[in-house]
Design brief:
Layout: H1 15-41, E1 61-69, E2 72-80, E3 85-95, E4 101-103, E5 107-114, E6 117-121, E7 130-135, E8 138-141, E9 151-155, H2 158-167, E10 178-179, E11 182-183
Antiparallel strand pairs: 1-2, 1-9, 2-3, 3-4, 3-5, 5-6, 6-7, 7-8, 8-9, 10-11
């Protein structure tokens, strides 16, 4: 006894099954294309590419550096355009006598990146230009501002900086002239 498929055509696949097979083939091909695109993009982990130079004319790179001293944390968040122009923001965080962090307003800065060298402007009120190089995951500058350090560590995200602020233990606050409203306040 032979059973005919529901559409009445012997030896043929039903229209519903054919639709499912075609749909699965389309999904598989799009998945394969997406996988090829991801692999071709060259993703290299959580950290940005820090080995490039100004000869890379097709990409924009973003770097976030953090500096820490006993009483302050600071962040440089910068973008280097395809032409080597730098735009960024500097954020300085210090701790008050109550032990809570105080965030200064973010300050814009600029500069250039050429042949592995940074030249940063607008980081200090005296107009000094800071130059530096990237050594591994550390930006070494030729002078200090903000947290008074020359070494800035590359971090993966703003969230990593926020976590450092949250976990920072400021030094004990010492006041020689304690007034009724706080240190030196009368």
């Amino acid at each position: 006894m032979t059973h005919d498929p529901p559409n009445g055509r012997p030896g043929q696949t039903s229209d519903g099954r054919r639709t499912i097979i075609v749909l699965l083939a389309v999904i598989a091909s799009f998945s394969l294309i997406a996988l090829i695109v991801v692999l071709a993009s060259g993703s290299n982990g959580d950290r940005p590419d820090v080995t490039g130079d100004s000869g890379d004319t097709e990409t924009t790179r973003t770097y976030i550096f953090m500096a820490e001293t006993e009483g302050a944390l600071s962040k440089l968040n910068m973008t280097i355009g395809p032409d080597g122009q730098i735009t960024g923001e500097h954020l300085f965080v210090r701790w008050g006598d109550n032990g809570k962090p105080y965030y200064d307003d973010p300050e814009p800065f600029g500069g250039t990146f050429t042949d592995g060298y940074f030249e940063l402007t607008g980081l200090s009120s005296n107009g000094k230009i800071y130059t530096g190089t990237l050594e591994g995951d550390t930006l070494i500058l030729n002078g200090t501002f903000g947290p008074s350090t020359q070494e800035w560590t590359l971090i993966g995200s703003d969230a990593e900086f926020d976590e450092a602020v949250e976990n920072h233990t400021p030094p004990p606050y010492e006041c020689e002239d304690e007034g009724p409203f706080g240190c030196g306040e009368y």
